[in-house]
User: Fold Ly6/PLAUR domain-containing protein 3-like from Gymnodraco acuticeps.
Amino acid sequence: NVYDVNFKGCALPERCVNRSLNLGLIQTLISSSCCTTKLCNSANAPEPVQSQPNGKSCFSCVGQSCTSSLACTGNQDFCYSASVTVDGQYIPVRGCVPKEMCQGHSSCCEGDLCNSASSTSAGLLLIMAPLLSLGLLS
Ligand SMILES: *[C@@H]1O[C@H](CO)[C@@H](O)[C@H](O)[C@H]1NC(C)=O
Assistant:
């Protein structure tokens, strides 16, 4: 399934970025454009562009099994590992993420297929919360 979601509003400068992360089941591409004058954001942001594989790979999960290898793209230089509990069900989540999403999180590692160990992090909630709130994962 592909969901195309547009957001508009007021934002801090650090939110004006292009990002992509790939958690196997969920791939998110974010493209943003920001401006600083009154009501200047009438146009939609450009469609995000899928970047090329960068030669790195990380484990990703299919159901409870986290043994498949995922090709990272663009600036997804780190591997990510976390577990979430949804409705009492434990769901492991692994994949490729950019450096910016790893700051302050022990759930990231650098190096091919380095994310074999499981790890729990609130960081994932930051990533998933917008998706959850939109009902995209239900
Ligand atoms: C994001 O990428 C688009 C092209 O897809 C570009 O037009 C835009 O300026 C970029 N935004 C930022 C914040 O770099």
